[in-house]
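Hi all, long-time lurker, first post. I run a small reading group and we've been trying to get comfortable going from sequence to structure in the token notation. Rather than ask abstract questions, I figured I'd post a concrete chain and ask someone more experienced to write out its structure so we can walk through it together at our next meeting. Sequence below, copied exactly:
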Amino acid sequence: MTCQSMTGFASVQGGVNGVKWSWEARSVNGRGLDLRLRLPDGLERLETTLRAVFGKAFSRGSITLTLKLKRVEQSALPRLSLPHLDAVLDVAEELTNAAAQRGLAISPPCVGDLMAFRGVVDHDAPAAEDDVAVMEALVAEVEPLANALLRARIAEGSRLSEILAEQLVKIDKLLVAAEETAAIRDTLRGEVLRQRVASLLEATPVVDETRLAQELAMIAVKADVTEELDRLKAHLAAAHDLIAEPGPIGRKFDFLSQEFNREANTLCSKSASSDLTAVGLEMKVAIDQMREQIQNVE
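-- Answer (accepted) --
Happy to help. Here is the structure in token form:
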């Protein structure tokens, strides 16, 4: 199982009744699910279907859905608009009556005159929002569009999973190097500490052995990085489990990366060794690179 990316693109084209259209779905990172719709005027009724389908298919990401319509040029049959004709005849009658009151004679309009008025004869096909077949076809393509975007995000997530797995392997190798470097540091540090204690005992006739033991124990605790290394191992195991986990894992992985970074910071602060600090800094870089990729995970 691979994680799903929040980045993806999909498009669907179709057409019916002399109308062609193109759906586009673009997805980028987002804290939650943010659907942005760009629909032609008159097709706002598609919003309910779009939000329902995409809200079910995705949980995170900023998704922009764009619909573009284009009417194919065709010779539509003329249609008589009775409401427009009635309105024109009413106006003609009012003009004739007004002229008669002033003693003017106006010849009645002929058929050609009436057809010349805008709207009386309609040569255009019905608008997309009024065409039942067009609306049904547009609604039917919403789910295929969501599935196409889902496939694109899964494909991107597969590549993302490979990158994250490689970064975890790198962190694991650095963790092994940190353990080896810490062991060498402890051996050298122990030898230096024994020499300093011996010099102190020679220079001081009376030594409070209890206080000396307390101070040595405190030095050892401050320099001990075993706990940080153990927690980093646990975080690595949790990260591998997350990659294999089905469903959205982005938020969990982001929180886990913060824990990675916290332990790496503590490792550097307690290193007391340039070699161990160098390993810790390299680990921090690898963790930051991993966290950048995690921002793309749903």
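A couple of things your group might point at:
The chain has nine helices and six strands.
The first helix runs from residue 46 to 57.
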